[in-house]
Amino acid sequence: MRIESLQKSAQLAGVLIGPALNVLFIGLHVDAGWLKLNPNTMAGYFPAILNFILLLGFRFFVDDPPRNVRTSGARSLPCNLLLKTGSWACLVSALSTNLQMTALDVLFAPLAKLHLGWGDLEVSGCFAALAVLSAVGTFIGIMADKKGVKSLKIILTGCILNVVTTIGTALTLRQAPETVPMVTFMVFGGLGVITIFTYTGATGGLYQQCCAEAQGLLGGLYLMCFAGGRPFGALLAGVLIKGDPAPLCWLMTIIIVANTGILLMLWRRLSKADEDARANKLRLVSGTSDAETHQQGTA
After folding, report:
1. Alpha-carbon distance 94 to 214, whole Å?
2. What are phi and psi of 262, to 5 degrees?
3. Which structural domains are found in the chain, ordered by start?
4. pLDDT per residue over 183-231, tens digit each?
5. Distance between alpha carbon 64 and the CA centroid of its chain, in Å?
6. Which end of the chain has the lower number of beta carbons within 10 A, N or C?
7. Predicted confidence band at 77 (pLDDT cuts at 50, 70, 90)?
8. Closest to 49 (Cα-Cα) out of 32, 25, 23
9. Which stretches does DSSP call E strand in the chain?
10. Closest by CA position to 141, among listed 34, 297, 7
11. What's the whole-model pTM score?
């Protein structure tokens, strides 16, 4: 779960770090013939450099991991596995959290420029601050797991807190874009970022544990839902800025509330999957067989 927290947080953090990187390029204006380096072109050159680094990294420093020991859940068909364990709720959570993060990302810049008179430098600096808050949320989630808090409890607590921050955000945006209390909006947005990053890793970790050996196929489905939240979030935020904000504000809130309700309905299934995954992890770490684990548990 801790590794998944880092991985999923890195995926979500890109939504914040991308705008924050503008700080590095705002003053960049280099014209060397066909090579023109400026804030616009660096949106292409910088990711190209990163991808070249990734190419070298995967080529020389990454190997495929060994196959996991087969578990009983791995023998189920992928779709049946999602229904049996209730892990499809994690897909809903992945979609809703990315939708929420992207909506906040798209909303903040125009509102800050309209009501605070901020330029690109100030907006990028604020996104850098949000990236720091995302690291705080990730740290809280990892520390909770190290203290032995079950993944499902981390997820449910995060969802409940997210409902509070989402309702607060919706209330501040009732008159958007004409009248928005920006301080309140930024406070709720910051708390929302911390909350989302606290439980997004636990959600991904629990999902991967439930998938057993079907992680390849079902992991791709999770990433589709995770990435799918971005265009929907941008679409909602765009309509919110230009149209009637009230219905869309509350729609986002309803999505988060529904996600929390689904987790509560599937509590017993997800809890069993969480317990089974933890028992399997202990067995793999200790190197004992299923029979030996049963004997130890009986003793």
Report:
1. 18
2. -65, -40
3. 2-25+76-287 (1.20.1250.20)
4. 999 999 999 999 999 998 889 888 888 887 777 778 888 888 888 888 8
5. 24
6. C
7. low
8. 25
9. 30-32, 35-37
10. 7
11. 0.80
